[in-house]
Amino acid sequence: MTLAPTLAIIGGGQLARMMAQPAIALGLPLRLLAEGEGVSAAQVIPDQLVGDYRDLDTLKKVTEGCAVVTFDHEHVPTEHLHALEAAGVAVRPGPDALVHAQDKGVMRARLTELGIPCPRNAIVSSVAEVEAFGFPCVLKTTRGGYDGKGVWVVRDVVDVAEPLRVAEEAGVQVLAEELVDFRRELSAIVARSPSGQAAAYPVVHTYQENGVCKEVIAPAPDLSPELAVQGEQIALRIAGELGVVGILAVEMFETVDGRLLVNELAMRPHNTGHWTQDGAVTSQFENHLRAVMDLPLGSPAPRAKWSVMVNILGSTRENVGRLYDGYPHAMARDPHLRVHLYGKEMRPGRKVGHVNVYGDDLEECLERARHAADWFQGDLGNDSD
Amino acid sequence: MTLAPTLAIIGGGQLARMMAQPAIALGLPLRLLAEGEGVSAAQVIPDQLVGDYRDLDTLKKVTEGCAVVTFDHEHVPTEHLHALEAAGVAVRPGPDALVHAQDKGVMRARLTELGIPCPRNAIVSSVAEVEAFGFPCVLKTTRGGYDGKGVWVVRDVVDVAEPLRVAEEAGVQVLAEELVDFRRELSAIVARSPSGQAAAYPVVHTYQENGVCKEVIAPAPDLSPELAVQGEQIALRIAGELGVVGILAVEMFETVDGRLLVNELAMRPHNTGHWTQDGAVTSQFENHLRAVMDLPLGSPAPRAKWSVMVNILGSTRENVGRLYDGYPHAMARDPHLRVHLYGKEMRPGRKVGHVNVYGDDLEECLERARHAADWFQGDLGNDSD
């Protein structure tokens, strides 16, 4: 006997792992489809199946008896999502919304139709079309890219061959976008439930390193009140117009001339929202669960003046794999540090965890969070061991 | 391959369940010995064994390959704990400390020896000895009692027979204690690591109903600074003298004449510390894990002026078992409410969850938390369904 409806999660990465924490508190039973034995979320969710999310039978099996299915990633084929809906499982976010996070071409077309500010863009299929679009520009595969993969900055005709080849091999299109002269990158996260209730977290500043999110500051420092409101409104409008259920993350550029342009969409808890675990009344993970289960949303209000998140990335150094060694120093140095690890082995550049720090002094928060992340990464202090 | 040493937990109740949340964040692998299939913690810890904690072979099996073993309850026999230590597992808290939470006679003798203020007390074995101790008084079985069970207030000779009979049948002793004229009950919670580091949470006010904790206010309102410090010092001293590792909860009476007397000890996360999940920088559950793994402790500092915890107890009403029905109203009414449910079916008087509320206005926090708990219990509003 279960006391509450069961939620299926497709994908066993750290996002599913971090959904498990509020699911414990809310008394929500989870069932996991994991890519492999012992992956990040499979370590912490007992009711699990190991299998391939591209296989419809596997998806049907894992969602059997579940009221709702949600996702750790955007890679489940659209036709399978429709099949699950037909089988009576509530798919949240639904396939018609999710396609905008799966396909950048569809996303750009829809946002343009809605009048949401985006970088100038066009689908291109030849060197000549890219040349006509104009250099420099950014080429992206419409599907399958993440964390900087599937994205190229091209400045000349010779740069274009590889993106076209990769796209052709993958059977996807190429989207050309203007290279935006941005002041910085921002992210606006909202939660939206099927009944239409929505909650907006404050717009944050995100700092990327080699295409991977490295630091987040909440709220974005020195953001004009107009842009702060505009950022939240853009995210709320997209969530409503696209019928998103769950968390929607809208990555944006703040241009040097003070405009916001939408860069990417994600329809799941997002790296730029990890600060909410310790810095907001209700974390993005809890609000994702509440939204997909159609429970009232929790307050997205910040609990501190400043929150800082710094990712722990696998180091390229000798001490790779010795993550646990970093605990004593980082924790002893900073008893207020909040540590979040994913149960993943260190590999160069891999996201293996993050730290959150909150407080009244932004510079101090940044110093503390960066030091702790560096230490966990093995970039400090372990030479003499 | 595990990235960190594995921690075994004996007992699958809600305390083990709530340890699972910070274990996810800390990347600590857990292995659970559960009393039965699907009990509270077994719903959320994949690596588990179902078996009897009174059986040494079962204990050896579940702790095999684990660096440390800790507990959801105090009921594991002392001789088994010594056997596990001999087998090379770090038992935390250790048997020599834990006996003071298992046996109230041993606890009283030791605290008296240390000069820690306690109610006047004596081991009694006959009606005549209770009469000599004096009426009214409290009789307690030295072992096996909890949540008001194994405790009797006796006012006359005729009341004494039952406690003596229960104790004899259980093969335990009876402790007589003066009936303390108390203003209120308080609780002091500290965490202590094997290396001796300790952290004290602020002393809280606890309100019991029928021997069961119902409400906690942190910090205790109108507590004199002297008693607040004294309460923390008593708990720190006991933890140090007894060599406690992990969380120690010291339940105390504040007498009408302004003294603190120690009532009970618990060496595990405690109901009177649940407010720390949302009201402190580091929860008691996380600090219990850090302590038993000998990691540096996190800050026990409060994050709000006031935190209130109210237990959700199984109702005696018709709607028992419909806990999930309470979610929408309680969450919609109060987006700042923090809900913690244990995955337990409603039974009259059973602890099935709690709510935490924090804020600047104590009366408002109490009203919000009580309303939410009443609603979850089905004591409000569901009649018209």
TrEMBL record, chains A, B:
Top EC class, one word: ligase
Keyword entries, A-Z: ATP-binding, Ligase, Nucleotide-binding, Purine biosynthesis
One cellular-component annotation, GO: cytosol
The keyword Transport appears for this protein: no
Assigned EC number: 6.3.4.18
Pfam families: ATP-grasp (PF02222), PurK_C (PF17769), RS_preATP-grasp-like (PF22660)
Binding, ATP: 104, 140, 177-180, 185, 263-264
InterPro entries assigned: ATP-grasp (IPR011761), ATP-grasp_carboxylate-amine (IPR003135), ATP_grasp_subdomain_1 (IPR013815), PreATP-grasp_dom_sf (IPR016185), PurK (IPR005875), PurK_C (IPR040686), PurT/PurK_preATP-grasp (IPR054350), Rudment_hybrid_motif (IPR011054)
Reaction catalysis annotation: 5-amino-1-(5-phospho-beta-D-ribosyl)imidazole + hydrogencarbonate + ATP = 5-carboxyamino-1-(5-phospho-D-ribosyl)imidazole + ADP + phosphate + 2 H(+)
Transmembrane parts of this sequence: none
BP term (GO), one: 'de novo' IMP biosynthetic process
Entries under HAMAP family matching the protein: PurK (MF_01928)
UniProt protein name: N5-carboxyaminoimidazole ribonucleotide synthase
Species in which this protein is naturally found: Nocardioides albus
Lineage, broadest ranks: Bacteria, Bacillati, Actinomycetota, Actinomycetes, Propionibacteriales
Gene of this entry: purK
